[in-house]
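Per-record layout

source: Seriola dumerili
name: Retinal pigment epithelium-derived rhodopsin homolog
length: 286
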Amino acid sequence: MFVKFKELRTATNFIIINLAFTDIGVAGIGYPMSAASDIHGSWKFGYTGCQVYAALNIFFGMASIGLLTVVAMDRYLTICRPDIGQKMTVRSYNLLILAAWLNAVFWSSMPIVGWAGYAPDPTGATCTINWRQNDASFISYTMAVIAVNFVLPLSVMFYCYYNVSVTVRRYKAGNCLDSINVDWSDQMDVTKMSIVMIVMFLVAWSPYSLVCLWASFGDPMTIPAPMAIIAPLFAKSSTFYNPCIYVVANKKFRRAIIGMIRCQTRQRITINSQVPMTTSQQPLTQ
């Protein structure tokens, strides 16, 4: 869709494309290895394969929440602070996206170099952070990850979307929406889509965070086996939600998908709005 429809190549949607790559990474690399191990009955790819598999899953997970934070910041700047949002360039967005990826590289590589570690989970069919060995290294790593990649991003997102909702209510109360140079229908579609993605990410990763906290402050051996199995599965399920959310929550995505399914040419389908857009909604090619 992004290749075919130039209107979708906006700064905000470029962040969404990067988010889609994190989903593709987990689905394309993580699922086949874990499925093969499930069929085999135990981890099939040895120590090195375990380290690569676990690191990539943590990498794509950390990148996801980083990119969702960038989306929240974009929504805040576009709707609440257009004076700053209009000054944002393609380079500015690229730097924010790069920061999200580099942050993911750092946290996913630390267990490989000795801060905590990766090991097969209780089922022996997948690999993850070795929470059964709750030593000082694991506890410090877990607390740092939860603080930097869970609590802080969610706080930023809450602040951004709270201010977005306040700003929209204020404009609606003053009947000012029509006088502002913003396609509010499109902006609200993008914002709603972003909020739903964040909520589903929270639903997916909260059980895993709970297991890590339990292992840090309690006895890892008391963690029920079903919870130990379900938590990482819930986390990996986040890759399924986003494509569904794109379709449900955003009219432009729906029109583009319908156009592709029907094999419509570029000339026969129009997904763009006629209302002028803010900087973050302008095509990246400009």
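summary: The beta strands are 118-120, 127-129. Residues 6-262 form a domain with the Rhopdopsin 7-helix transmembrane proteins fold (CATH 1.20.1070.10).
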